[in-house]
Amino acid sequence: xxxxxxxxxxxxxxxxxxxxxxxxxxxxxxxxxxxxxxxxxxxxxxxxxxxxxxxxxxxxxxxxxxxxxxxxxxxxxxxxxxxxxxxxxxxxxxxxxxxxxxxxxxxxxxxxxxxxxxxxxxxxxxxxxxxxxxxxxxxxxxxxxxxxxxxxxxxxxxxxxxxxxxxxxxxxxxxxxxxxxxxxxxxxxxxxxxxxxxxxxxxxxxxxxxxxxxxxxxxxxxxxxxxxxxxxxxxxxxxxxxxxxxxxxxxxxxxxxxxxxxxxxxxxxxxxxxxxxxxxxxxxxxxxxxxxxxxxxxxxxxxxxxxxxxxxxxxxxxxxxxxxxxxxxxxxxxxxxxxxxxxxxxxxxxxxxxxxxxxxxxxxxxxxxxxxxxxxxxxxxxxxxxxxxxxxxxxxxxxxxxxxxxxxxxxxxxxxxxxxxxxxxxxxxxxxxxxxxxx
Length: 439
Fold this sequence. Notes:
Elements: H1 6-34, E1 71-76, H2 78-81, H3 89-105, E2 110-116, H4 132-135, H5 146-155, E3 160-165, E4 169-171, H6 185-190, E5 199-202, E6 205-208, H7 213-229, E7 234-237, H8 252-258, H9 264-286, E8 291-294, H10 300-305, H11 311-316, E9 323-324, H12 345-353, E10 362-368, H13 390-401, E11 405-409, H14 411-415, H15 422-438
Parallel strand pairs: 1-2, 1-11, 2-3, 3-7, 7-8, 8-9, 9-10, 10-11
Antiparallel strand pairs: 4-6, 5-6
Helix pairs in contact: 3-5, 7-9, 12-13, 13-15
């Protein structure tokens, strides 16, 4: 990883220069006011700005500069990697180049790519073993760095690159991955009687215990390693916090040792809050221009009560995130089996937009491209998901409502599928993006 910190230093210098220019602008504004040349109140308004954003008149937007345009992203996940050849740099680079060309042509400006899906790494890490997705064996690399390849290919196309991290997930199932590398921190913890509860099983999955301070430090150090050694534009956490179905036995030993009598649910939420705060602070210490966001479930009750993630708190208070991206994967017509419509796209979006936000905290929307030609599972007719334009309609609706951007889950459902409606959906998205770009 030699030499990879040099661009980061260059960006820090640019940030310093920007600060000096802003300071100069402030001085000029004060001078103008002394001459009676300011407008009323000296503030400007932005069309479509949400009243819930918490941005007071004259208050500077702390959002990283690269995110002040509409955010248009596509996720590239471990599921996409499973369809690729990662055995050599040449093969991987060719496939990534094709994918990024298609993402760019869609009108997107950001790629969100998995770099640590299972407590392992698709980059050269001193903390985590090489991902099994590269060679089939965790801990075994292929002689190149997939993250370096992706950043190079993204930036050569003027695409932002955000690194997607699953903070707690070590194993998603009995075969994902089948074996942990000997040097995997989770394997080392499990083999140590004094640290055995630092990793906890839930069904066939294996997770780092969110209650353990040393575990949080490991996760934060992993993010710090990425930000210091790679020219990423952002870090995103996926929506896996406490695993669904975790009963009291999941963290009983840690609760007895650390909770000091707190309500278990509140204690769990504060464990996650601490990780989110610490991660934000670490990123901003390295480079304030690196964005940090989280993509939670679209059902915020599940976030709060099942995964113990207090997303509303992160949005309302500064020092947690730059953005939240709820996964609103339902259609306009969605109804539950009982006929309820609170999760229909526009209703769910309105609920998220109504939540208070600290200055500079953006609301992006995760859209379910995987629903194309399949449907959203509601009791409603599914025609909209076969129309070839449903995602484009959702983009238009979220823009009209005042959201700040969107991401599409995920690449393969637009470009790696034989669903007849996929190509028309991609074409419709391209048109709706071109309309905004040219307006």
